[in-house]
Amino acid sequence: MTAEMLDYLIIGAGPAGLQLAALFERDGRRDYLVLEAADAPGAFFTRFPRHRQLISINKPHTGSDDPELNLRLDWNSLLSDDPALRFTRYTERYFPDADVLVRYLADFAAATGVRVRYRSRVVRVARVADGGFAVTDQTGTTHRARRVVVATGVSEPYVPAIPGIAHAERYDEMPVDPRDFLDQRVLIIGKGNSAFETADALMETTTLIHVAGPSSVRMAWRTHYVGHLRAVNNNFLDTYQLKSANAILDGHVRGIERAADGYRVTFSFSRANEVTKELRYDRVLACTGFRFDPSVFADGCRPTLVINDRFPAQTAQWESVNVPDLFFAGTLSQQRDFKRSTSGFIHGFRYGVRALHRILERRYHDNPWPAEKVDATADAAADAIIERVNRSSALWQQFGVLADVLTVAGTDARYHEEVPVDYLVDAGLDTADHPVEHAFVVTLEYGPQHDQVDPFDISVGRIAQDVAGQAHDAAYLHPVVRHHHRGRVAAVHHLAENLENRWNRPDVHRRPLVAFLDRCLSGTVG
After folding, report:
1. Which of 19, 135, 186, 223 sits CB 3.0–4.6 Å from 353 for a disulfide?
2. Which residues contact residue 33 at a Cβ distance below 8 angstroms, ignoring those fewer than 6 apart?
């Protein structure tokens, strides 16, 4: 066992682990270590996605030289003040090859000087009697730390409880050469991006493909959740709707059996006339997603799991609900906004990691949330809010999850950036010298029921942009300002949506916002 007690031990040198470590390095807080099982960072992306095309966008040509604004269209970069550490410098491909991301992460680790111990696979995490954790790797070396941050991602395949599922070839193990499936009937279980990525790759060589699952196919362009089916993977839908041999089956796989001519699959349809039918396939592929692996945690230290045991349950500080000082970063943090926002992806969780870093600094090192002082007037507050919503990448990417918060205590007003909304409610931003009376919580959000209508259907009534009086019914992403007075929401103001995402028109955006802020500060609203 190592004698040194670290402040932080980070498990995993993927994007989230590197991001947190880089923030520690930037601030000179070097009492940490990253343990990584592989011999290089970003090992997950050396295997996934299996067909190597990322679905995270990359757009070097934006017409803007504002690095903050450009991160709205750069979904792969980690956060850094070094312009050389922008993923957009590595390729111009809109949907890049995963190997480019692996190279980028290696360069990021080297340039930031993060402290990573490679070829150190964690096999056990346990509590120790005198406080903190003991983390042991495969060599028998044990590291001690006051706090552990798990940034391993969802590293284990999620296998649904289907009789005979062992006959299916898993997404992480199946061949990816399309000619391996030549003239075969293939069933793909799952309706997410991995399933449709696989179907698109195999369409040219198979006899037919059925994609099956109990849930409806949900399109990302409609739900605004980027984990739902993306257009880059949806060519298969054409072949189904245009009756080109392939099909999507809505219902449940009830069993898979080996037969002389392949596999017999019992399928229970949700919508077709036949309730249950036996179907024959040459191959069955399981593309059913991934889950968190809790096997390394000792008894008394094992985090509670939720969402079909796929994710650790977390507090508003991304801390285990049952294991104090055990935190989660990266795609694991999506448990807090599961299928609602972007914490499952680099362009979302990079900001979540930065917020976690600030939470740790505030909680353990007595450093307040960073803030800039502004004049405690409605005009100054409106200018600060509009300037941020027009260029912030964090509020744009983590819609509804992160907020800018303007706090007011008498004549002392402070602007805090990128505060998790749930954390604000849970912990507040009060300090000894700044007892908050008013808090204006600024988010970017889609409108109510935005995922219930076809966004391309022009026959559906839609609120016209730049109509201030109807802004609260707008479906498109737009700023929302909530006035918290002495800890409760007293009033809400929506800024009218705008096609160019510029919320600065004097009569439409600024003047109504100033009037709202003035009423809140004067006590005439709420």
Report:
1. 19
2. 6, 8, 9, 10, 115, 116, 117, 143, 145
pLDDT of residue 433: 92
Look-up: residue for tokens 């809790």? 294
Q: Quick check: helix, strand or coil at residue 96?
A: coil
Taking the whole predicted model, whether its pTM rises above 0.85 is answered as: yes
- Residue 452 phi, psi (nearest 5): -100, -5
pLDDT, tens only, 44-101: 999 999 899 999 999 999 999 999 999 999 999 999 999 999 999 999 999 999 999 9
Residue 214's pLDDT is 92
Helix axes 98-112, 15-26, angle to 10 degrees: 20
Is the pLDDT confidence value at 461 over 70?
Answer: no
**Which residue shows structure tokens 């005439």?**
524
Place of tokens 């898979």: 256
Q: What are phi and psi of 179, to 5 degrees?
A: -75, -10
Sequence length of the chain is: 526
Question: In sequence order, what are the residues at sequence separation of 6 or more whose Cβ sits closer than 8 angstroms to the Cβ of residue 359?
Answer: 317, 318, 420, 423
Kindly report, residue by residue over 135-158, the tens digit of the pLDDT: 999 999 999 999 999 999 998 999
Cβ proximity of 214 and 195 under 8 Å: no
CB atoms < 10 A from the CB of 226, how many? 20
